[in-house]
Amino acid sequence: MKAAVLAKLQAARAGRRPVALVTDLASGAQALLDGGVALGDLELTDDALAAAIRLLERDTSRAVEAGGRRVFVHVYNPPSRLIIVGAVHIAQALAPMAALMGYAVTIVDPRRAFATDARFPTVTLSDDWPDEAMEKLKPDRRTAVVTLTHDPKLDDPALAVALRSPAFYVGSLGSRRTHAKRIERLTAQGLSEAELRRIHGPVGLSIGAITPAEIAVSILGQITEARRKEAAA
C-alpha cells in the first residue's frame, strides 16, 4: 500500500468514515473509496465503484469481477453503535449483549445514581440531558437508538433527535397505550407521520419476553432484523 493511500485510510478511520480499499488482484494497483470519491492509482470502472459501494453498505469484504478485472474490496467500516437512553435493568442486560455483537455502546442517563461505572463497567456513559447527548453523538446510518426510561422527560427529547437523524433503528420501551400517548406528545412537538412511523414501539420482537435479559434479546433481534433488511435493500 502506498504511503499516501495509507495516510488517507488512517485519517478516514480516525474520523469514523466508512471507506473501502479496492485492489486490482492482477496489477496490485489500489484505490481508496471515501465518500464516493476514489483516491489512488487504480481507476475504478462504474461496475467496480458500484460493487464497492454495495459492499460498504453490506459491511462485507470480498473479491468481485468488475469491468473485466478481478478486484478485492476491503471494507473498513467504523463499529455500528447502539445508544441506550436509560441506565435501567434492561440496559444492564442489553449493553453487554450488544457489545458481544460488535456494537459500540453508549448509555445516556442524567440520573447519576443509575448511570454508574459499577453498574456499567464496560460501556461509555453520558450524564448529559438526552437531547444534548444525542446532538453530540450525531446518530448516523450505522446507529441504533433505544429509549428505556418510561419517562417522557428523558425519552421524548432523545426520540425527537433520533427520528430526525439517519439512524437505522429507533425503538422505545412501553405498552401500546404508552406508545399511543408518546405519539401524541411527539406529534405536538412537530414530528411528522413519516418520522413517527420509524419508532419501533413497543420495542422488540414479539417473543413473549418477560425478564430484562429476554427483553434485551427481543430488542437485539429487532435491531438485527432492521439492519439486515436495510443492507439487503
Structure overview:
- The chain has helices at residues 3-14, 46-58, 89-100, 130-137, 152-162, 176-188, 193-196, 212-232; strands at residues 19-24, 30-34, 37-40, 62-66, 69-76, 81-85, 104-108, 124-126, 143-147, 169-172, 199-200.
- The radius of gyration is 20 Å and the shape is elongated.
- A hairpin with a 2-residue loop joins strand 2 (30-34) and strand 3.
- The chain has eight helices and eleven strands.
- The protein has a six-stranded parallel sheet, sandwiched between helices.
- It has two domains: 3-76, no CATH class; 81-232, Rossmann fold (3-Layer(aba) Sandwich).
- The protein is an alpha/beta fold and 233 residues long.
Secondary-structure topology with pairs:
Elements lengths: L2 H12 L4 E6 L5 E5 L2 E4 L5 H13 L3 E5 L2 E8 L4 E5 L3 H12 L3 E5 L15 E3 L3 H8 L5 E5 L4 H11 L6 E4 L3 H13 L4 H4 L2 E2 L11 H21 L1
Parallel strand pairs: 6-7, 6-9, 7-8, 9-10, 10-11
Antiparallel strand pairs: 1-2, 1-5, 2-3, 4-5
